[in-house]
Amino acid sequence: MSSKTINISEFFKLGKKLFPICRSLTGNGNRKTLRILKKKIFNLKKIEIPSGKKIFDWTVPPEWNIRSAYVEDENQNKIIDFNKSNLHLVNYSIPISKNIFFKDLLKKLYFLKNQPNYIPYITSYYKRDWGFCVSYNYFKKLKKKYKYSSKFKVRINSTLNNKGSLSIGEALIKGKSKKEIFISTYMCHPSICNDNLSGILLTSMLYNYFKKKKNYYSIRFVFVPEIIGSICYLNKRLKILKKNFIAGYNLTCVGDTRAYSFLPSKNENSLTNKVAYKIFKENKISYKKYKYLDFRSDEGNYNSSGIDLEVATFCRSKYAEYKEYHTSGDNFNVLKKKGLKGSFNIMRKIIDDIMQTERPKCTVICEPQLGKRGLHPLIGTKESKKEVKKYINFLQYADGTNDIKKISEILEIGTKECLRIYKKLYQNKLIKISK
Ligand code: ZN
Prior knowledge:
By secondary structure, the protein is of the alpha/beta class. The protein is about 35% helix and about 20% strand. It contains 12 helices and 18 strands. The protein has helices at about 10-20, 30-40, 100-105, 135-145, 195-210, 230-245, 270-280, 300, 335-355, 380-395, 405-410, 415-425, and strands at about 45-50, 55, 60, 65-70, 80, 95-100, 110, 130-135, 150-160, 165-175, 180-185, 220-225, 245-250, 260-265, 285-290, 310-315, 360, 430-435. The chain has an 8-stranded mixed beta sheet, sandwiched between helices. A 4-stranded antiparallel beta sheet has the order 5-4-9-6. β4 and β5 (about 80) form a beta hairpin. The chain starts with 7 loop residues before the first helix and ends with a strand. The structure holds zinc ion.
């Protein structure tokens, strides 16, 4: 598979630029990310949803911004410093300025005993709290060095603004048809590579690839903070999504070089799933298939009852399932050009297949009356009944999600024969093609 039309190095460079930014559910880090992305995605629009706004069952949180955060010992040594890694601070920490004893500081430190070299990524979005994250090895060092009675200065220069907002990025490539392919990714994680800087990069690459092409369908790209962001976006664009959506993918953890994963949309027979399975199969790509109920990201909102957008999640190592997940270990040792390139090639093929493949759709509800169209013989013989059954069978699967090859497989007739039936039905206006 080739990816000649896209310069992976250029997007990898973009990744290096975006990596250090402290992103979150809200705040200037997300806006800065969108500003940088706009240089690659020219028609990227920023949507701001005000803090405090009720969205379905949720309320948009106050906007969080962070300038600096550190813990200093009595000799003015900064023993933990947000400036060194934004993972050191619990994301959404409230502002703090106080002096505390070591024994109390210990209660506010997070670490991973079983992964002693990594700083964990911890958030406290909806509980007003604060804390610092360190590697377990470093934690042990601190315990050795200080006494319970040692004094520390804790400073967290953060703000939580009730008059702030939550930022979302949206870009539409208009195709010949208003019907849309939907691509969603989340941008709320700070300096973590595979989850989900990689999703941001792949989405940008796909935008740039399809922007240069003449497309039959439109493609909608969105960058949201995970969960609350997709809820806000759905609230804002539900009507148009419901009207135009034909298939959709949530892109996350797509930059490592391990096996691919696919978490299907809720309805196994969706176009979203069928095309992905087809591309994996045609390109002989092995992947781990999850169940829809393994969802934990935005796909859960897109597929939820009442929303019913058949969005699947495409990953390499699935979120929550690889060892560096949500730690400082998820860095550029995990995110690789090769990994990103592989994901790009598959997603590009999936979108291209949706664009280019004809998928017949029956134009009538229930079984059509074939007699009045001259498709049902006046005198039924064994042979003519067989022919009629082929028409009826074909129409059963002409739902806009199966291509001719797939229908011929299901009907257990050859592609040539299937094409003959298709033409006959098309001439009689019993099917239209999906594009
Ligand atoms: Zn995550």
